[in-house]
Write a structure and sequence with these properties.
7 helices; single chain; two-stranded antiparallel ribbon
């Protein structure tokens, strides 16, 4: 398909995601545990991101490179890498999934996605939006199962790119498996954001004003 044809389907899918955001947010909350308001906002982001990738697909420009010989024209074209395999994390079941789906579709690639085994429902609901928007069969595929068994298929020569959001340990493993077929890899691996819990921190989920450190002092006669 042309970039404009892909844009039309993706824009329609984004509209369906937006229309169904409250319905999609419920399984996200049930599987992930985040508040429903946060889940709804995350699904709304999925709609926005889909439109963004659809628009970027129309701007995958090439370029003309000045030649060093007379009578020679050097042109650079950007083409889809072809089938992509992607593995999504559970922390953001909608935003992790949509970045992989829409990124691939916007570039003109088909994709096989494995969502986290803890949060499959969100991925299925989003995929149905693309299906209902007219995405051809076989362009977006979702697989479930044991992660190690599924990732063992990375040695297949058919997929040309692998994308992963997960831990550093898993990223190293998948990159090794992808190396035999020289797959391109895009890895978003373990973060480095520290969390410090002080000894005087209250273990109860209480408002800041009621925690031991911030509780007002009263006289013994109060």
């Amino acid at each position: 398909m042309t970039a404009m044809q892909r844009w039309a389907i993706m824009d329609k899918a984004a509209g369906l995601i937006e229309q169904r955001k409250e319905t999609i947010a419920r399984p996200l909350t049930m599987e992930n545990g985040k508040a429903l308001a946060g889940a709804t906002g995350e699904v709304q982001f999925a709609a926005v991101a889909t439109r963004w990738y659809a628009e970027e697909g129309k701007r995958a420009y090439g370029r003309i490179v000045p030649a060093w010989l007379p009578g020679v024209r050097q042109m650079v074209f950007k083409e889809p890498v072809r089938p992509v395999v992607a593995f999504a994390a559970w922390k953001f079941p909608a935003s992790n999934v949509i970045r992989k789906i829409s990124g691939a579709l916007g570039a003109g690639c088909s994709i096989i996605l494995k969502p986290a085994e803890e949060t499959p429902g969100t991925a299925v609901a989003i995929a149905r939006c693309f299906q209902d928007a007219g995405l051809p069969a076989g362009v977006l595929n979702i697989v479930f199962g044991e992660p190690a068994r599924i990732s063992s298929y990375l040695d297949s020569p058919i997929p040309k790119k692998a994308s992963l959001t997960s831990s550093t340990a898993v990223g190293k493993l998948l990159q090794k498996q992808a190396a035999d077929t020289l797959k391109r890899c895009t890895m978003e691996l373990g973060g480095h954001a520290p969390v410090i819990v002080y000894e005087d921190a209250s273990r109860a989920a209480v408002p800041r004003s009621q925690s031991p450190r911030h509780r007002p002092h009263h006289s013994s006669g109060a």
